[in-house]
Amino acid sequence: DSGVTQTPKHLITATGQRVTLRCSPRSGDLSVYWYQQSLDQGLQFLIQYYNGEERAKGNILERFSAQQFPDLHSELNLSSLELGDSALYFCASSLHVSGTDTQYFGPGTRLTVL
Amino acid sequence: GENVEQHPSTLSVQEGDSAVIKCTYSDSASNYFPWYKQELGKRPQLIIDIRSNVGEKKDQRIAVTLNKTAKHFSLHITETQPEDSAVYFCAAKRPEYSASYGKLTFGQGTILTVHP
């Protein structure tokens, strides 16, 4: 157990819908990262937050957004869902922004868009 | 941006043999290189990492080597066991002062199968 929690574990929804994925980082960690894992794209970085502020952005679609709250938990919002958004979404956390910080991954949320 | 190439995509070995997975990275500014193991349907778990100021690191049966000049790093697993079967990902990260700091760029993954 990495100490990073994610809810829900599984999510099944329809195209065009909106969902929210939630992540709680390890106790004391200030940075939260979101990754998408699909069969054809591998593990792709979406976005990073550090202590409530957006710090880095990857190839995150405009239909996707995220935020980190004062208690440091983070939510990833996916809207106007398409079949291709079906994937495993991982959250990771690290202690603070540093050149070599270890990122610990949560168990993931499996999103299925029908 | 950073690009990480990982080879081979699949690797099959007999129990007790050694396994080697290689990665090359494009961004010479990258200074942190972790390796993650992912079992089917599970989260990636860090198994070993190396910083750019170190050439080699070992942890029991697992070792990682880094060649900064050639921009490649490798994972070595000795005395493989069936429970080593999983997907292994290498990754690279840029230092704190650079843009997109914090982002891990992953290789495509290697499916390792250890046959009893």
Write the layout of secondary structure elements.
The complex is a heterodimer of chains A (114) and B (116).
Chain A: E1 5-7, E2 10-13, E3 19-24, E4 31-38, E5 42-50, E6 53-57, E7 64-68, E8 74-78, E9 87-94, E10 104-105, E11 109-113
Parallel strand pairs in A: 2-11
Antiparallel strand pairs in A: 1-3, 3-8, 4-5, 4-9, 5-6, 7-8, 9-10, 9-11
Chain B: E1 4-7, E2 10-14, E3 19-25, E4 32-38, E5 45-51, E6 56-59, E7 62-67, E8 72-77, E9 86-92, E10 105-106, E11 110-115
Parallel strand pairs in B: 2-11
Antiparallel strand pairs in B: 1-3, 3-8, 4-5, 4-9, 6-7, 7-8, 9-10, 9-11
Task: Tell me what the structure shows.
The complex is a heterodimer of chains A (114) and B (116). By secondary structure, chain A is an all-beta fold. Helices cover 0% and strands 53% of the residues of chain A. Chain A has no helices and eleven strands. Chain A has strands spanning 5-7, 10-13, 19-24, 31-38, 42-50, 53-57, 64-68, 74-78, 87-94, 104-105, 109-113. In chain A, strand 5 and strand 6 form a beta hairpin. The mean pLDDT of chain A is 92. Chain B has strands at residues 4-7, 10-14, 19-25, 32-38, 45-51, 56-59, 62-67, 72-77, 86-92, 105-106, 110-115. In chain B, strands 2, 4, 5, 9, 10 and 11 form a six-stranded mixed sheet that branches. Chain B has a five-stranded antiparallel sheet with strand order 1-3-8-7-6, with no helix packed on it. In chain B, strand 6 (56-59) and strand 7 form a beta hairpin. Chain B is globular. The N and C termini of chain B lie far apart (41 Å). The chains are: A mainly beta (114), B mainly beta (116).
